[in-house]
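It would be a great kindness if you could assist me with a short task in structural biology. The matter concerns a single protein, recorded as an amino acid sequence and a row of backbone structure tokens. The record follows directly beneath this note:
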Amino acid sequence: MIDLIVAGGGPAGLMTAIHARLQGLEVTVVEKRSGPIDKACGEGLMPDALSRLQAVGIDPDGHDFCGIRYISKGKVAEAHFRSGPGRGVRRLTLHSALRERADDLGVHTVTGRVTEIHHGNGWIEAGGLRARYLVGADGLHSDVRRILGLGEDTTGARRFGVRQHFGTAPWSDFVEVYWLEDSEVYVTPVSHDTVGVAVLGRAVLKLDDAIARIPELAARLTQVPRVSELRGAGPLFQRVSTRSADRALLVGDASGYIDALTGEGLRLGFAEAEAAVNAVVTDQPEGYEHAWQKATRSYRFMTGGLLWASSHRAVRPLIVPAARAMPRVFTRIVDSLAA
């Protein structure tokens, strides 16, 4: 019997497996897809996420950025990271780097999918394997979460995201966020000759329409070649009752998600991966919920507040002017999300 099954071979799952091997555990990743896995995401690694990767021997290629810039109707507010740079990294590049490190450490991977979970005295079965513990890291629409019955109803207004890459040199060392009346457009430098453009919103999202509504962005991108497929994701909000059940733990998007507004998905997933492995090593799964709450506290507070403000017509237009008028406050908020 092995120590740990990880359901899901994306960044959160691979980081879990890497931490497990560094702690001397025998771990197998169960993933239904082969090769590097692409996903619609902003691709900006916050400084803490980058530090966590480097701490386990991963330093992915990309383009460093120094902070966050909000733009709306000619008004600009920007905040530099005080803890060091973040880095824009293509999702395929990040996944390949994580996969290579996991292979070097002896992580075993099998092609498959978790469709049933069975518990016993001191063991758990999933994906045709038996282990002491299971970590569900299988994304927003987690099968593990569904099978365990840990998801909750998320009816109501739903937000989605789309993303595509453009073959042009980055024009800024910031992640730029353009605030429209009903959506946000993110531009992330991911290499010396590529930027990623993502749109978040509630309506049916059309990337070209969103770009066309921002004259300065349209002028930069209209004649630029697309260098990746258009990808979408959502609904983003996923409510979860608790992050563990007996010998199963949830990490990453599977553990619950509010929104991608603040770009913290990978930072949180990496922190949760380490916390989950610590719970396995100490044989104290009941402590993981507290660790999860602590790791995600600033994200839940800041992202929840920003999402509330952005969803109110009277408040949304005030977000960028307020950030511009209070630069120190804006910098503190950005730092709390980045560290």
